[in-house]
Design goal:
The structure holds two protein chains of two kinds.
Chain A: H1 5-45, H2 50-81
Helix pairs in contact in A: 1-2
Chain B: H1 2-17, H2 20-25, E1 41-45, E2 48-52, H3 54-75, H4 84-104, H5 107-131, E3 135-138, E4 149-151, H6 159-181, H7 183-189, H8 199-242, H9 248-286
Antiparallel strand pairs in B: 1-2, 3-4
Classes of the chains: A mainly alpha, B mainly alpha.
Chain lengths: 82, 290
């Protein structure tokens, strides 16, 4: 199996997809964990606030999680389109 | 109850069969094929091509369900003992009124812009919900002869759709902000009070953030739906891609779990977020200083 230019480009694209998605998931991963942990903390302090906190948690969850998808999207662009 | 379960099971079998059409074709399986849009009929209007494709059919379906179902329920006579359909519509209305409309829009603009925000929510929610039901619309990989294969496609997983919706929201918010405050006071309200030395820097930053709103609003919905669908299709497709059957017991339960998660939570959540952020943008443009 010879190393061709096209093969190098394909390898770089595959690396871009994997690395981009992986590194892009680090920040939101920390964020989501922090968010849910803080919500649990809040609920255990004030159980009567549970439904309010849960609503806000889901909102924050969707906003934080979306950042992963920005990275994933850019990785897809690198892999499929570029 | 058992009938509903059977319906869900039927949809699930369809989801699992969706990539199988590509295998039957004997060709190479590409998960991205699911997001191709071929025109079934089209005509040229100057530089534009206007036609009917899978995406357009999905949009029509969403529109028909949104408009006809709600009109049928409301005009068909509301009952004091609501049936199942009426309960769902009432639930949607109360949710969008209390959680989206009243939570984000200022009182003065509520009557004017609540219909827009609510219909945005119901429309995107409908599009997201029907996107997880496999429909026989895949002409790229026909199942057998002229019968189209099953597809798992979302109209909201196309950037043109979400970008159009986001541009509408942003245009409305700027127009309303300029109308309520006057053009110059509205533009000045973008920049928070700050020492004069920082002003040019802040102006650039705020203008940039206004432009980035369009991107973040549209890409959030688009990427969520695209990634969700691609994930499900890829999980099932792994069996085909690798060509080894022993992957199936691992890959297919993962696909099922993601299908339930996306259909049950993400589809509704993203519709809610889109409508709520639209409300926030419009509301904060009308009343800049909270």
């Amino acid at each position: 199996m010879a190393l061709t230019d096209q093969g190098l480009v394909d390898a770089a694209k595959a690396l871009a997809l994997g690395l981009g998605t992986g590194f892009g998931a680090i920040g939101p991963g920390v964020g989501v964990g922090y968010l849910i942990g803080k919500t649990i903390e809040g609920v255990s302090r004030q159980p009567e606030m549970r439904s309010d906190l849960q609503g806000m948690m889901f909102l924050g969850l969707a906003l934080t999680e979306a950042i992963t998808f920005y990275a994933l999207l850019m990785s897809f662009v690198a892999f499929f389109i570029a | 109850m058992s009938r509903r379960l059977a319906l869900v099971a039927l949809a699930l079998v369809g989801v699992l069969l969706a990539p199988a059409a590509a295998l039957a074709e004997g060709g190479e399986f590409k998960p991205v094929d699911e997001f191709l849009n071929e025109y079934w009929a089209s005509f040229a209007l100057g530089p534009l091509t206007i036609g009917v494709s899978k995406l357009v059919v999905y949009l029509w379906l969403g529109l028909a369900i949104t408009i006809i179902l709600t009109l049928w329920v409301v005009r068909g006579g509301l009952r004091t003992q609501p049936g199942r359909t009426q309960t769902v519509v009432e639930l949607l209305y109360t949710f969008s009124e209390s959680n989206i409309g009243q939570a984000t829009l200022p009182k003065a603009a509520f009557a004017r812009w609540f219909p827009y925000v609510a219909s945005l929510f119901v429309f995107i929610w409908t599009l997201n919900m029907i996107s997880f039901i496999p429909l026989p619309l895949d002409t790229h990989n026909p199942l057998y002869g002229p019968i189209p294969g099953l597809t798992l496609y979302a109209a909201t997983s196309n950037l043109s759709v979400t970008l159009t919706l986001a541009l509408m929201t942003i245009a409305i918010s700027h127009f309303e902000g300029a109308r309520a405050n006057g053009v110059w006071p509205y533009l000045k309200s973008w920049v928070p009070p700050s020492p004069p030395a920082l002003k040019p820097f802040l102006i650039v930053l705020e203008v940039l953030s206004q432009l980035l709103r369009i991107i973040s609003l549209s890409v959030r919905l688009f990427a969520n739906m695209l990634a969700g669908h691609l994930l499900i299709i890829m999980c099932i497709g792994f069996v085909i891609l690798l060509g080894k059957l022993f992957v199936a017991p691992i890959a297919i339960p993962i696909a099922v779990v993601f299908w339930i998660f996306e259909w049950g939570l993400v589809a509704s959540l993203q519709a809610y977020i889109f409508a709520m952020l639209s409300g926030i943008y419009i509301g904060s443009a009308i009343e800049p200083h909270h």
